[in-house]
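Q: Here's a chain of 221 amino acids. Please give me its 3D structure as tokens.
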Amino acid sequence: MSLKPIVLYSAASGPNSWKVAIILKELDLQYETKYQDYRLLHQKPYEDINPNGRAPAIHDPNTDLTLWESNACIEYLIMQYDKERKISHDTFSEKHLEKQYMYFQASGQGPYFGQAAWFYQFHPEPVQSAKERYANEVKRVVAVLDGILASKKYIVGERLTYVDLSYVMWNTFIPMCLEPGTWDISAYPNFKRWHEEMLERDSVKTALKERDSEMAASQPH
């Protein structure tokens, strides 16, 4: 029986929706993207989908399940549709390590990078102490990943998984999270090698192209 397309509720400019899109592409799942206006995320009818008023969310008509929180969406897609383990493991240790690093992405990378980007790009008045705090946290998280990758090619196991791919979109935002012109990826050689490999994935290339196109189309003319 053929699968019905999954619905992805997306906000084009944020990294989290594209994390989910990349996994959908990697698993070759049919899906429909419904782009949401950021200004309307905290209103009905979208709040009926996600009461937290954030993107992304997904609805899977094949199981009649609606989920929000990007990593919850990703873990569901892996559990439900990666039966061949294309981008995941089925061994005891690796399954738990995958969860560990997904929690690190959700608790470390995403929040710190997001706060840094906010204070550098969007906060109405300059708050230097906040900029410095979150910029230092961005560099700390990158250094943690650089150290993890010093002795191995991928975060978990000997091959690429959904965990690696869950970091890439936020990593593309690093220049927005620091003082202009100060990001030097070559200072983190293991991170650099890993990130650049992620950028060469067809799923990531397509997601970045779609993101840029959608953001351009949403700009006032």
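Q: Can you summarize the key feature?
A: The first strand starts at residue 6 and ends at 10.
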